[in-house]
């Protein structure tokens, strides 16, 4: 059963149908958060939802939802954040976990399409989700009539990065560039209005 310490709080985790993202979502759920999962694969999302629901004893999925889609697409990021707000009334935590490594290829052999897609998923997706989430986080923080009747003053954005944000990875210039960009994106937001962390 989930802890009651975080009842009413909501976490959105991108790329959370398996692996690290799923584990992060499960831990949030176990500590009382409602969670919104995301993946491109609907079957993986369904299995992850069932697994987490079983782990926390939520047979009716009252604390879990998901949005299928590729977060390199702006409308998917908008739907993902809107699902948290419409279903659970707020968003307290965004975890930008979704990422792809791309093909292992020498820099002079990387196609424009491959370069763009790695950057779009790993970096643009984090930017889009963060920008959309902040609209609601800041509004809730300043509002006295948040739908949950709880002021959201402790929102967090967590970016999952890599050692390759600072250590070059052989034959993966597009991946390393995306993670280096993630580090700088995190630093930029941390100087602004968000409470944002980078986890390498």
Description:
The protein is of the alpha/beta class. The protein has one domain (about 10-200): NAD(P)-binding Rossmann-like Domain (Rossmann fold, 3-Layer(aba) Sandwich), CATH 3.40.50. It is built from five helices and six strands. It has helices at about 20-30, 40-55, 75-90, 110-140, 175-190, and strands spanning about 10-15, 35-40, 65-70, 95, 155-160, 195-200. A six-stranded parallel sheet has the order 3-2-1-4-5-6, with helices on both faces. The radius of gyration is 17 Å and the shape is globular.
Give the CATH superfamily.
NAD(P)-binding Rossmann-like Domain
Fraction of residues in helix: 40-55%
Order of the strands making up the biggest sheet: 3-2-1-4-5-6
Task: Using the coordinates shown, work out and report the CATH topology.
Answer: Rossmann fold
- CATH architecture grouping: 3-Layer(aba) Sandwich
Number of helices: 5
CA-CA gap between termini: 30 Å
What percent of residues are in strands?
5-15%
What do the pLDDT scores average to? 86
Task: Using the CA coordinates, give the radius of gyration.
Answer: 17 Å
Number of strands: 6
Globally, the shape reads globular
The level 1 CATH classification is Alpha Beta
Broad structural category: alpha/beta
What is the helix/strand order? EHEHEHEHEHE
Please tell me the total number of domains. 1
Q: Strand count, sense and closure of the main sheet? A: 6 strands, parallel
Low-confidence parts: 144-150
């Amino acid at each position: 059963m989930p802890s009651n310490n975080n009842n009413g709080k909501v976490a959105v985790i991108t790329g959370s149908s398996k692996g690290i993202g799923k584990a992060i979502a499960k831990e949030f759920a176990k500590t009382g958060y409602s969670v919104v999962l995301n993946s491109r694969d609907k079957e993986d999302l369904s299995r992850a939802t069932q697994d987490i629901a079983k782990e926390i004893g939520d047979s009716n999925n009252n604390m879990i939802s998901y949005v299928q889609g590729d977060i390199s697409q702006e409308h998917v990021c908008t739907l993902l954040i809107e699902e948290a707000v419409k279903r659970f009334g707020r968003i307290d935590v965004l975890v930008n976990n979704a990422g792809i490594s791309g093909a292992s290829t020498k820099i002079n052999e990387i196609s424009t399409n491959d370069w763009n897609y790695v950057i779009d998923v790993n970096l643009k997706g984090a930017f889009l989700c963060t920008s959309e989430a902040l609209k609601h986080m800041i509004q809730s923080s300043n509002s006295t009539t948040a739908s949950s009747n709880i002021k959201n003053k402790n929102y967090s954005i967590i970016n999952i990065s890599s050692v390759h944000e600072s250590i070059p990875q052989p034959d993966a210039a597009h991946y390393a560039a995306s993670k280096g960009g993630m580090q700088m994106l995190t630093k930029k937001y941390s100087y602004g209005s968000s409470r944002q962390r980078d986890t390498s």
